Amino acid sequence: MSDNHIQFLLNDRLVTLNDIDPNTNVLGYLRNHANKSGTKEGCASGDCGACTVVVAEYIGGELTYKSLNACITLLPSLHGKQLITAEDLQDGDKLHPVQQAMVDFHGSQCGFCTPGFIMSLFALHKNFPDPSKHQTLEALAGNLCRCTGYRAIMDAAAAAKNHGPDQFDRNKAQTIATLSEIQSLAMTKLSSDGQEAYSPTSLGELSQLMLDNPKARLLAGGTDIVLEITQMMKQLGTIVYVGNVPELQQFDEDGDKFTLGAALPYTQFTPSIAAHYPEFGDMIERIGSLQVRNQGTLGGNVGNASPIGDTPPVLIALDARLNLRKGDDVRNIATEDYFVDYKVTSQQDSEFIQSIEIPKPSANQQLKVYKISKRFDDDISAVLAAFNFTIENDTVTAARIAFGGMAGVPARAKACEAALIGQPWTQATVDSAMAALAGDYTPMSDVRATKEYRMTVAQNLLQKAFIEMTQPQVNTGVVQYA
Ligand SMILES: Cc1cc2nc3c(=O)[nH]c(=O)nc-3n(C[C@H](O)[C@H](O)[C@H](O)COP(=O)(O)OP(=O)(O)OC[C@H]3O[C@@H](n4cnc5c(N)ncnc54)[C@H](O)[C@@H]3O)c2cc1C
Ligand code: FES
Ligand code: FES
User: Fold this and answer.
1) C-beta 225 within 6 A of ligand 1
2) Which of 213, 229, 287, 325 most suits a substitution to test ligand 1, by most atoms within 8 Å of the C-beta?
3) What is the pLDDT of residues 286-314, one digit of tens each?
């Protein structure tokens, strides 16, 4: 049984929606249905941040505030949450402190980007009352401004620190009570004109829905799949939203591995992974923007099966495994066996990724991860390299190497691995492994890089890893935030 509506708070007003196309994004809903035009459309693809809104979720006994791009967030995913927009920040006739700071420090000129910046700053100060420069840069890296310049906006961010309680703090108990009540409702369904979206609330419901709808489109954060709607004008047909299934939101650490629920957003698991694999954590911080990482998931990154997705090469190098579920059956496969051909996977009809198992690091193991893109922040990789070495007594005893951007699928560099394993960890070994790498891939030229560039950079990244591991005092040009 399912309820044929979704419910969420629009600021402090409870909204119930039923007869609305589930392919509607939150931006379209706000502007065309809710008569709120403060949230702007710039790119409609998650790149500019003009449409940034904040969603408050009641998780683990706390209200968590997340900035999201409304253009790539589908309406069904709002169920049980509070949606806050720039119009909602003013308290009576008083501007919110982050709005007042933007006025005082001249953070706005044409104003088109301003609501998005305001919402990113609002979420930043809700999560970090006295944010560091790193936290501020991270919060704003997904908001583009063509006229003001970022200095004024950074000054406004600093001025708004420790601004004290606002109306959201005053209303907290009521907000939590309402969200808890909505969340306890059964599975929801939103449908209109032959388009339908289900939001199951347990693994059993999700499994049964996928058996009943073998070709349904799984929706997690939506940061890939919603582009089919906004950029290709498609409709998704039957949608199954996985974000309300608790079993897909778990993070377990047991024995020698971590098990990550497929629908856990990046920002919720990155610190735990970074504690064991710092380079993996640093790389995840470069996936899209904070808005994208607040929504995007590991299951979505793998399920999207893009050859330039950033996490699959790392998962392959770490020998991570996927738990694929169909009904009551679960099969555990190596991540590399999921990717069959360009955008073709071994996932069957009715099947979905339930979780991802990542082995914990062992002694003498070292992971090196490099993302090559034209911009440091918020850009897609031309090449992604992941090297997982075990060096014992100056000999390479194990090497798993995988690249993205070098083939139609994320793939291992097996000839390169073979040239390293059992050999002394020396420049001569690295030279022959770099030569062997040329036989592993036949890269393509596209808008991001030529095939020659891709091969050269891939070989040089192995050299870079060797230098960093053997001569840590040498600066190989690793970019760090201030
Ligand atoms: C502005 C922008 C910047 C981006 N930058 C990067 C980047 O730097 N690096 C990068 O790798 N990606 C990037 N992406 C792509 C995207 O954010 C990631 O791939 C993200 O991890 C997708 O996760 P999601 O939860 O949003 O997936 P969704 O969009 O919800 O789903 C993606 C695909 O996976 C499938 N899927 C979802 N969940 C499951 C599941 N449990 N089992 C099986 N299939 C499933 C869906 O059906 C769909 O086909 C960017 C996207 C945007 C919009
Ligand atoms: S409109 Fe540009 S990120 Fe949404
Ligand atoms: S103020 Fe004009 S785009 Fe930012």
Assistant:
1) yes
2) 287
3) 999 999 999 999 999 999 999 999 999 99
